[in-house]
Design brief:
The chain contains nine helices and 14 strands. The chain is α/β, with parallel strands linked by helices. The longest helix has 15 residues. The mean pLDDT is about 95. The protein binds zinc ion and fe (iii) ion. Fe (iii) ion (FE) binds next to helix 2.
């Protein structure tokens, strides 16, 4: 069952579209629907026919192509129960802990609110891949439009509890600007410095910095390093709670 195929492609300004294809079942899901033309081009490139959209959250840059694609392909749109009123064309709602089949693969729904109040991530344990929407980015995390730092902290705790080898797909290519902030907070982290150099090389070549992995983000992403003594020292929060450290990092990023 390691034959799941995944196609990531740029869409809009800095979004990523992702297609997930189970060849045995003949199913193809788009993770969010940022842009119709980019998704159609990717489908054509791979010779796949769209059957599903898995929506992470209701923001326009993640649902804008829902109705156009539904009209064209008659697909099923799955998304978070808590945001069903603002997800165009939604057919089936999911909530935390739900599990459903996508072809031969289990999909586990993990509620990861904070960026929006109802955001979910989709975890495929057999394929060891998670689609994290705008909750977790490489070297960053989503802005808190509809949640508190405490909410986002709990969501990120759920994601770092996944197997460390899990591949992480994200909604946006924000890594290069995230790296500047990460280095300001955690300047002596050699894994981070190495990743920042790699990111620069990739972006100069016009290449994506994603997907990433849970292991890599745990080593480099300051939003997952609330326990790290050096970061705590830099923030003068040596004895604060993990949540307080996360809250301070999120606040500094907002003002960076
Ligand atoms: Zn968003
Ligand atoms: Fe977004």
């Amino acid at each position: 069952m390691s034959d799941l195929q995944i196609e990531q492609f740029p869409a809009r300004t800095d979004n990523y579209g992702v297609l997930v294809h189970d060849p045995a079942a003949g199913l193809t899901a788009a993770i969010d629907a940022p842009e119709e033309q980019a998704i159609l081009a990717a489908l054509k490139r791979r010779g796949w026919k769209l059957t599903h959209i898995l929506t992470t959250h209701h923001h326009n840059d993640h649902v804008e192509a829902n109705l156009a694609l539904k009209q064209r392909f008659g697909i099923e749109i799955i998304g978070p129960e808590a945001e069903k009123a603002s997800i165009p064309g939604i057919d089936r709602t999911v909530k935390d802990g739900d599990q459903f089949k996508f072809g031969n693969y289990d999909v586990k729904v993990i509620s990861t609110p904070g960026h929006t109040a109802g955001e979910v991530s989709y975890f495929l344990p057999e394929a060891k891949v998670v689609f994290a929407g705008d909750t977790l980015f490489s070297l960053g995390c989503g802005r808190l439009f509809e949640g508190t730092p405490a909410t986002m902290f709990r969501s990120l705790q759920k994601l770092v509890a996944l197997p460390v080898e899990t591949t992480v797909y994200c909604g946006h290519e924000y890594t290069e600007s995230n790296a500047r902030f990460a280095l300001a907070i955690d300047p002596d982290n050699s894994a981070l410095k190495e990743r920042a150099r790699e990111v620069q090389v990739l972006r100069e070549a016009g290449l994506p910095t994603l997907p990433t992995t849970i292991m890599r983000e745990m080593a480099t992403n300051p939003f997952l390093r609330w326990h790290d003594p050096a970061i705590r020292r830099n923030l003068k929060l040596e004895h604060a709670s993990d949540e307080a450290v996360f809250t301070e990092i999120r606040k500094r990023k907002d003002n960076f």
